Amino acid sequence: MKGIGVKAIAFVGYPVTDVDRAKDFYGRVLGLDCTMDHEVPEQRIRWIEYDIGAGTLAISNAWAPGGQSGPSAALEVEDLDAALEWLKSEGVALKSEVMASPSCRFAVIADPDGNELILHQHHPS
Questions:
Q1: Which domain holds residue 40?
Q2: How many domains does the chain have?
Q3: For burial by CB atoms within 10 Å, which of 17, 69, 74, 107 has the most?
Q4: CATH of the domain at 78
Q5: For the CA atoms of 109, 15, 21, 46, what is the dihedral angle to 10 degrees?
Q6: pLDDT 10s digit of each residue in the chain, 125 long?
Q7: How far apart are CA 28 and CA 41, in angstroms?
Q8: Looking at the domain assignment, is residue 114 inside a domain?
Q9: Does residue 52 lie within any of the structural domains?
Q10: DSSP label at 41?
């Protein structure tokens, strides 16, 4: 075993203030399928997961947004331009213009709590 034996990223988690609003954004606006919606009523905590490929994106009110820049998830999309048009029609603003690298094109948006998400499209190989 090398180090502590990390095998994979279990999930990327984002803190949210309004779970229903965030679930609408990630589900309806981004089109992700909710794979878990777990509530702990006595603690007023909710944990929601979206399985994306081999990874998982989680949102929860289990911890408060810190207002600081932190990690962000990069979501691979089929058509970056079409995705950005859809988001524009939903009132989602770009945090950055579309940028390009030798391997991809990408742009940055934010969820309703200001958590940044990268929309990413690989160039055809």
A1: 12-122
A2: 1
A3: 107
A4: 3.10.180.10
A5: 150
A6: 576 567 777 789 899 999 999 999 999 999 999 999 999 889 899 999 999 998 899 999 988 776 665 677 889 898 999 999 999 999 998 998 899 887 889 999 999 988 888 899 988 87
A7: 24
A8: yes
A9: yes
A10: G
